[in-house]
Amino acid sequence: MSVRDEREPLAPRTTSLYDYALFRHGIEPDGRIPAGGYPLPGGFPAVSRRDRLDPPAAEAAVTAAIVPLLADPISVHAAEAAQTRLAALPVLPKHIHRIVLGIVPEGQYTARARRLPLRLARLLTRNGTHPSAVHAGLALLCNLGNSADTPTVRTLGMLREFSSEAVAVLDRIDRRAAAELELRVTAEAPGPDAFCDAVTAGDREAVRAVLTGGPTPTGRPRRIAEAARLDQLLDEYPQDPALTVAACRLLLAMAHTNQYRPEVLDYAQAHPVYEAVVARAHRLSPSTDSYALLLSLAQDLRSGAGAVLQWPPGRRAGLIDTLGRLLAEPLWAAVPDEAAAAAGIGPGKDPSGHRAGWMLRAGRRPFIPPAAPGTFEIEVVVSDPAVRNVVETRIVLGGRPLVPDLFASGGSNSPEYLLDAGRLRAGPEPREVQLAEAYCTEGCCGALYVTIRRDGDTVVWDGWRGVEGKRQPPPYRCDAAAYDAEVERAENDRSWSWPARDTARLLADGLRERPELLTAWDCRAGWTFTAWDDPQTVELCFTYAPAAEPGVPAKGDPWLQFAWRIPDDGTPPESQARAALERLAAQNPRTWARLCGGSKEYAEALGHDWPPGGP
Predict the structure, then answer these.
(1) Sign of the C-alpha dihedral computed for residues 25, 76, 117 and 101 taken in this order
(2) Pair 114, 152: CB distance under 8 Å
(3) What are 192-227's pLDDT values in tens digits?
(4) Phi/psi at 335 (nearest 5 deg)?
């Protein structure tokens, strides 16, 4: 049993939660915050669901308790009375936090006028003995606090109840402290954390060693960069190519779109880190890994989240040009061919071979300078297959990528969805088109839509839906002839694709033309793409449900989902797709495809083995 477990905590009713957090940390044998943070002391009864105030009543009650204290000088005694009133409310403490955030919005107070509410915030956070009071104080500090509040907020953040709210406050007043706290309390396992320990100790050499000596530390990449003060670290070690590589990987991890919002858009030091990485790229040795990193960085700067940052005029184009000139040098330009020869591109299932093919297919496209204002571009971008298997149809308006600028929950839709199906064509009737979907699903976190219509000799994009922050961008207008030519070019350009992807497209086309190949077996096609975990394998997903419309179960009816994986065998995609269609015509696909969803009871009743641990 540890010292922390043996000692009784201070009485929660007489000791502030701030002091309690200091006490818990003080008795920690190794001085580290445990994964997840410390629990609150006992003695705080939960607010039952039955007794809770409904949202309007809760907002009125919290407002009545807080607002009168914001305009007049407040004493410790008055703050204690406010705490008693907040603690008595049948409102969850975290809900109190959200309500108070709305009471004092950002920018409402001048520097002089904020003095009184700031004193209230500090009294509640420093002296609060109940979670409701501390949450109210943290909410006030979120829009009123300054660097003097960092020690108090960081201490309260060690308590699990307040960790996420404390990080949000620190994000406003001390980004590095916010990063360190988040990395500590969200650690995947208890025990030593070399990166956080080095950051806390201020040991810059140890921070550099951790970043360059092995796997990237666990945690969100932006937080790692902020805690390390990455921009400064690059200045401290300008000759270290391993640090340049680590910084580039962190930038790309921050910029990728398979997350709620590309973190690079919230990284205050993004510009100097991009500048430092590009300026020092020539120090890297030409290799497959280095080439792939710099190629990915160029893709990001041209049409990814990095392009959305507020760059000085011409600066982004300058960075792209620097990368393009470097990778065009003979030693660098030879890397893709050498990698392809070494790996043997083809059906050998060597991931490095697919990566070499990706580098060859990308060619010089990422190094084309950003287009002039008013220009409409469609750019199909394939990510580094060694990192993630993602293919996006990026729409670039006047040199600025559309989706990362307007949508925060996922990347652009695939070319199969937008281009192969002709969804970007401007027809005689207005048509709403989904440009991007949240990486979780539209039903969870939304999607980005636009209405495309033809107006005489102009194509108009307007009627935006699902834009981040409920903004309403202005209509975009493009010359119809230029628009049609760009859409036609993109639809016919398959230079980005690879054999397995072509097989998947041809198989999907065949099933659209001959749906009876699956409906004959009471099945319906789902998606047909290259597999997420193996881009050289086609995966066809289909649903089985005997119903009036085969494969479409009525509400409450059982169904099963199957996946058929087709590895690339090296023959032409047309041959592979034709063979797959012929097999579907001759045999019930449920006899060989892998069960991956549906009802366990229904599966077993039909004689299918339910996968151990579930599909």
Answers:
(1) positive
(2) no
(3) 578 988 998 899 999 999 999 877 788 899 999 999
(4) -60, -50
